Automatic annotation (TrEMBL):
Pfam families hit by this protein: F-box (PF00646), Kelch_FKB95 (PF25210)
Entry protein name: F-box/kelch-repeat protein
Biological source species: Cannabis sativa (Hemp)
Gene3D superfamilies for the chain: Kelch-type beta propeller
Source organism superkingdom: Eukaryota
Domain F-box residues, every copy: 79-115
Alphabetically ordered keywords of this record: Kelch repeat, Repeat
Amino acid sequence: MDRSGVRSSNAQRGFRVQAPLVDSVSCYCKVDAGLKTVAGARKFVPGSKLCIQPDINPNAHKGKTSRRDKSRFQAPLLPGLPDDLAIACLIRVPRVEHRKLRQVCKRWYRLLAGNFFYSLRKSLGMAEEWVYVVKRERDGKISWHAYDPTYHIWQPLPPVPGEYSYALGFGCAVLSGCHLYLFGGKDPLKGSMRRVIFYSARTNKWHRAPDMLRKRHFFGACVINNCLYVAGGECEGIQRTLRSAEVYDPNRNRWNFVSDMSTPMVPFIGVVHNGMWFLKGLGNHREVMSEAYSPETNTWSTISDGMVSGWRNPCVSMNGELYALDCRDGCKVRIYDRATDSWNKFIDSKLHLGNSRALEAAALVALNGKLCIIRNNMSISIVDVSSPDKHVESNPQLWENIAGRGHFRTLVTNLWSSIAGRSGLKSHILHCQVLQA
């Protein structure tokens, strides 16, 4: 007897016909759960029909409790409080304690590993900025450290992935405010790389990203509109110095080439100012060159002579102004005047620290609306540039040593200074970035 005959005979005997469990891509229940509506499912499975029992779980016969049922009976984040109030309490915990919060239970770990928790902190103005320093030690190995400016302590971090343990000439940038990217560079054994990895301040873990389109090291890099740009640099081969440039869009998760530079260049200074990317470096014949890139027009142009002649590293753009250090130990700050096309004196701390490599200012970043100077011995100074009386040569109230040498010293900063400055400094800072979480 055929299958239809069995159904008719069962119906005559009064038995209820049970629809089979759905086990086919021809119904909407097998479509990705991320498609919340039937309309969204129809787009990916054209011609499909709504199944007879759309709420049936194909794995129901295994006796497992569904995720929805589990969520109904799971323990609250904080006993005695609904989860929304518990989250309102947890987001106010200082960032320095978040590593401990992740170890309390799985629910707390998942909460602090997701985007919702830190997005809420940012929207409510509770996000904290930390300084992240990437350093080459005396043995050539790469290490990195995070500084909490609120409690003035250095925080432990997961080790840098092996491919960057001894890399040379790699780039470093921050996307989305909380992702620190390492990209390109030269492996001492394998040569130039296209590899891209990033560290998330929210998960405290390293992740992989799509490789760059071109192998390169000692190149320029910047972030504009949350897109990562790289240009120039070197690569093994006939055309060693590069003029190509490319951009990475994290939303599309892919790299694309942009317009080439006018001439090949190995940049040694770069900054984003007023929506333009300014680069200064060496050409094929070791001559000093400079160019500026506009992402809006996808074109390269020349830079004014006044800016190039007085432009020194490190420098940073903040609140529409371009700042640069004017001495080796970072005790003086200059500002660029676009009207006169010149660099002018801005602030002088009147406290010269010395000319040793340990005291050399390696980075200048914007931290909580102030200029942050980081030296090779891990000492830090903060300069407040928000004073209405800006163009002053000396104002001690604008200058603060929050870590390191001088009148303010702690056990931690003493340790870092002694390690970095012992028997002639060979270790030095390569990159310095600010991450928010």
